[in-house]
Write a structure and sequence with these properties.
disordered N terminus, Aspartate Aminotransferase, domain 2, binds pyridoxal-5'-phosphate, seven-stranded mixed sheet, alpha/beta
Length: 559
């Protein structure tokens, strides 16, 4: 039930309360639900308190007789009702806006198929239609939402569109949207346990669920960051500290640190270099290791390059093995790499940003071979476990190693730091932290492991279906083995020296058409097309349409 405004009662009935209006309602629960002001008020409604005159911002409530349902009387500040006065949107107006937004979201999701996947805008097209002056006066939500429809939605690449086949597809789901919505009003800062006990504990819980799903031993603990790039940077910071123990205190030069080297395959993600830049290790000290015909790291080449570096006076620090590389979703031979890491006493980081999620499928359990020998592993549920961006977990064997490098409690946080509890601010450079675990919890509970596994299995099936169509058309060829939801392929029906340009142009033109969205990459120096299937809305029919489009585009420009 919804609180209806009533004419203000005589202030003398409730005490002099200038600036407050009085509302009446028959249901205590509805008052609590719709107003949810603060627990003191709820206790008052339930008869625990006779007055809450000292509650900040509120004046007085009618005296409550013991043991009887009271007339629900609530005084709400006029500031809450009047747009022009200070305070938030009035509650009843906010409720209306939420209903309108719920319809907007449901309509968007239901009709997303009818939108262009990508705009045909020129650079600056969105800004050209938006006033560049910051607003002096406030606008109504109606107006703002209609501007979202008019100015923003048409200027988007719709990653949630079922014909969006770029990168790894995308993870938007209805439960994910609900999870994001629930998180918004809570708007907590999950920096320490005390500042947000439930957020901290739920984070620990979902981290452990994922750990179990990807078959990591219990000695691995984790922390949620925004992205895998941030995860690898933190992992390498720990590796660096363990190799040169006073870097945290005295810096690289003060600690007399050697020139460290990090190893990753030529197919590994560029976040390796970004981490080296951020940590002062130097971009050039990330050594790229050649890959075999399936784009997996050659462990013999790794060994040779480490040996060469040792000879030349470098200090090998860490190896990044990738499970699901960015271009082809190839999987490095983690077991062999782990053996080399043990032999040379190197930190082993596994970049499972994309591939780790597939380990929840029993038939893909072999993906996790050698993981228990790793020092750190990154898993991005926002890439393959249906959690909306952003949600990335860094696991470290013995999480205390990470805490030792990053814990730092200034005096102003000491009161909110219960040392016996996990304070996630201790596990990275970020102090303020979103309540990311909630959306993951909503999705994981909504789908269950079974539901996620079934969807991942379908994505693998679709990728293989698409690969079959390529195999059956001799103007095209697969450019890499099909792995998880990723297919790399090339158009080969023209003169060899024209193929790079043609493949790139097919992708560009399809993306410009707004009918589908693909990506392109370079493999062994050749430009190839690439699709990633990860969207729960993408069906075989969508894929068939994309394939038709690719063939038509190749016909149009390739002959
Ligand atoms: C294999 C791999 N690792 C790391 C990353 C970086 O992920 P994030 O965007 O979460 O930093 C990506 C991004 O696509 C990736 O494919």
């Amino acid at each position: 039930m919804y609180l209806a405004p009533k004419a203000p009662r005589s202030p003398s009935a409730w005490g002099a309360a200038p600036g407050f209006n009085v509302y009446e309602d028959t249901s205590a629960e509805s008052v609590i639900r719709s107003c949810a002001i603060e627990s003191r008020f709820q206790r008052c409604l339930h008869g625990d308190l006779n007055s809450w005159g000292d509650a900040p911002g509120y004046y007085e409530i009618a005296p409550l007789a013991p043991n009887r349902v009271q007339p629900r009387v609530l005084m709400i500040s006029e500031a809450m009702q009047n747009r022009d006065s200070l305070g938030d949107t009035p509650p009843e107006e906010f409720r209306g806006q939420l209903h309108a937004l719920a319809d907007w979201i449901a309509d968007f999701r239901q009709n997303i198929d009818s939108l262009r996947v990508a705009p045909d805008d020129k650079l600056g097209a969105t800004l050209a239609n938006i006033p560049t002056q910051p607003p002096e006066q406030g606008d109504s939500f109606d107006k703002i939402l209609s501007d979202v429809d008019r100015l923003i939605v048409p200027g988007m690449v719709h990653w949630s569109h079922p014909m969006f086949l770029g990168y790894f597809g995308w993870t938007t789901t209805a439960p994910g949207i609900l999870g994001e919505i629930i998180t918004a009003p809570l708007n907590v800062n999950a920096m320490t346990w005390r500042t947000s006990p439930a957020a901290t504990e739920l984070e620990t819980l979902v981290i452990d669920w994922i750990r179990q799903w990807v078959h990591l031993p219990q000695e691995f603990g984790g922390v949620v960051y925004d992205t895998a790039s941030v995860g690898v940077m933190h992992a390498l910071a720990v590796a660096r500290e363990e190799a040169a123990p006073s870097v945290r205190k005295r810096g690289l030069i003060g600690a007399g640190a050697p020139v460290f080297r990090i190893y990753a395959s030529e197919q590994a993600h560029s976040s390796a270099e970004k981490a080296a830049i951020a940590l002062g290790l130097g971009e050039e000290n990330v050594q790229r290791i050649p890959t075999d015909s399936a784009f997996c790291m050659e462990s013999s080449a790794l060994r040779e390059i480490i040996t060469r570096d040792l000879r030349e006076g470098f200090r090998p620090l860490a190896v990044i093995a990738t499970v699901g590389t960015t271009s082809t979703a190839s999987v490095d031979p983690v077991r062999e790499i782990a053996r080399i890491c043990r032999e040379f006493k190197l930190w082993l980081h596994i970049d499972g940003a994309y591939g780790a999620g597939f380990a929840i499928l029993p038939e893909c359990e072999s993906l996790t071979a050698g993981w228990s020998d790793a020092d750190s592993i990154v898993v991005n549920p926002h890439k393959s476990l249906f959690v909306p961006l952003d949600f990335s977990v860094l696991y470290v064997r013995d999480l205390e190693r990470l805490r030792r490098v990053f814990t730092l409690v200034p005096e102003y946080l000491r009161g909110d730091t219960v040392e016996a509890q996990k304070n996630y601010m201790d596990y990275g450079i970020q102090l303020g932290r979103r309540f990311r675990a909630l959306k993951a919890w909503v999705i994981f509970r909504s789908f269950g492991r079974d539901g996620m596994a079934a969807r991942l299995r379908e994505h693998i099936r679709l990728a293989n279906r698409f690969a079959d169509w390529i195999r059956n058309d001799d103007r095209f060829e697969l450019a890499a083995p099909v792995s998880m939801g990723v297919v790399c392929f090339g158009f080969i029906g023209a003169a060899k020296d024209k193929l790079d340009k043609l493949n790139s142009e097919i992708v560009e033109r399809i993306n410009a058409s707004g009918c589908a969205y693909l990506t392109q990459t370079k493999l062994r120096g050749r430009t190839v097309m690439r699709i990633g299937i990860g969207n729960v809305l993408t069906t075989e029919e969508h894929l068939r349409k994309a394939w038709l489009l690719i063939r038509e585009m190749a016909d149009a420009i390739g002959t």
